[in-house]
Amino acid sequence: EVSANEPDEMGVLFVLKINQLDAGRIIGRGGQNSMKIKAILTLAGLHHGVRASLKIDVPEIERNQ
């Protein structure tokens, strides 16, 4: 799930909510995939004249003990 706030003086913040089981694929080895996603957002922001940033939200899985 992706959500974005309205542009303000700090820019636009995109929040990517992912399942913990998918975190490895989204973030990638050494963070390579997440860095590429952030680079695309930065370029798109520059194109539109705003600063774009990404927050990846991975909720913890509750464990019953």
Describe this structure in words.
This protein has 65 residues and is α+β, with helices and mostly antiparallel strands. A three-stranded mixed sheet has the order 1-2-3, with helices on one face. The chain starts with a strand and ends in an 8-residue tail after the last strand. The model has no long low-confidence stretch (mean pLDDT 88).
In what range is the share of β-strand residues? 15-25%
Gyration radius, rounded: 14 Å
Structural class: alpha+beta
Tell me about the largest β-sheet: 3 strands, mixed
Q: Give the spatial strand order of the biggest sheet.
A: 1-2-3
Question: Would you list the SSEs in sequence order as H and E?
Answer: EEHHE
The best one-word shape is flat
What is the residue-mean pLDDT, rounded to a whole number? 88
**Share of residues in helices:** 25-40%
The number of helical runs is 2
Oligomeric description of these chains: single chain
Poorly predicted parts: none
The total beta strand count reads 3
- First-residue to last-residue Cα separation: 30 Å
Descriptive tags:
single chain; alpha+beta; 34% helix
Give a quick rundown of the structure.
By secondary structure, this protein is α+β, with helices and mostly antiparallel strands. The chain is 34% helix and 23% strand. 2% of the residues are buried.
